[in-house]
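Appendix B: complex inputs.
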Amino acid sequence: MIKTDHLCKRYQSVTAVEDVTFEVRPGEVLGFLGPNGAGKTTTMRMLAGFVAPTSGRASLFGHDVEAEPLAARQSLGYLPEGAPSYGEMRVNAFLAFIADLRGLEGARKRARMHHVIERLQLDSVLDRPIETLSKGFRRRVGLAQAIIHDPPALILDEPTDGLDPNQKHEVRTLINEMAREKIIVISTHILEEVDAVCTRAIIIARGRIVADDTPVQLAARSRYYNAVSLQLETAEQLAEARAAVEALPTVAQVEVSERDARLTALPRAGATILQAISDLSRSRGLKLKELHLESGRLDEVFRTITA
Amino acid sequence: MRNVGLILRRELASYFATPLAYVFILIFLVLANAFTFYLGDFYQRGQADLKPFFAFHPWLYLFLIPALSMRLWAEERKSGTIELLMTLPVRTWEAVLGKYLAAWLFTGVALALTFPIWITVNYLGSPDNGVIFASYLGSLLLAGGFLAVGSCMSALTRSQVVAFILGVVACFVLLLAGYPMVIDAFQGWAPQVLVSAIASLSFLAHFQSITRGVLEARDVLYFVMLIAFFLFTTTVALDLRKAE
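Resulting structure:
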């Protein structure tokens, strides 16, 4: 279990992290969201024992990161921001070095190296110095070193930054596979990633936790939650459709996009409007291209609570 | 101790993975020999010893050792690998010692590669090889002292250039601690105890006492304690401000 208790970090006059308290249990994938400079990286660094908190405590599986740093670090795999590694080293030698420092030996070391090399598809670059690799490969080398000792907890600072869509998908699949028995904390500012891998999201702004919920519940805070979006065949019927939808008592507001002949109807609090709009479009003879129910927009929630 | 060995090995391998090692050794050998033959009048003196060879080592080290030690921690900070290393299950002192020993071992290799001059002097005459052995040891200790100072300066900054300049200045002050240039700055206002304490810290005095062929425990102890002190300071400096 990862636990933080009123964690604070101040630099002279600047407060980077303020009163952050949360717990993460095995099986949870926690996504850390927040604008740049909100305190995500500082919080992760405190968990990894790289930055000492000004006040408060953090512990991994009962080991305080400050009082028992070695025990805490042994149970953790950590990918620092930017995936730093020794550029002049070859991938093979680098992974062997990390495995050695993690205390892996003999057959177990060989098996784990083989596993991570295969899992992150590093076969083709094993003999190349890391500094000659593309950004995507370097990130994968960073992920490989983080999971080489099969740790029960993983902290990954922007694990998919700089990867192409295929590689992003690969990394997300990897995270989902490991998610069952591990604790995983990732930071990201890609909101689709939260839907793809996280079971829980914490949003941080100006060093404080401003939301802590499941991605579905977070999206439900959106004013677009249960909104109905319909797209017409042509823009000609747009004005008529708008007037009709606005007249419905359960609709609070209508947004129109002329460009793609789209109309989004926002419901009054607690109301469901899909059926009413569906009936309406049939009786009015609207030519629909598309009609769907929105489950809320995470990016809109994100903007609202971090602005 | 296992971690110290692992870090030492990685570090040493990284020296030879870049041109750094070869450039350093080449320049060290060229300068050491040039000083000996041109400035030291190796032949004209007509004496079978290596005095002119060792006499220039402190001045050679003054610039070459900080050039080697400047990257020890400044580079780790700059590239961010310090975050990787310091979040592995490794104690700070293990990393400090491993990296330091790698650098020292490397200067030892460079120093050992000056062996042709030892062969030459033995071919030309019959020198006191005991003095030569003590001098080599003294030179290695001196390099170790400089490296420890440089390691500490490197831990204070993320800029290698700053680490180099701080290293040269700190080494220069320690080198000449017993000489008027440094002592005069303290004489007059500082208590006499402090002035004589500073004077006794001189690298040069202890080095010269060893190269005369008298390998005294107090000179060796001086270097060992100095190295221990600066490595301890490096560890404290890193622990206090790892992330900055």
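The mean pLDDT of chain A is 90.
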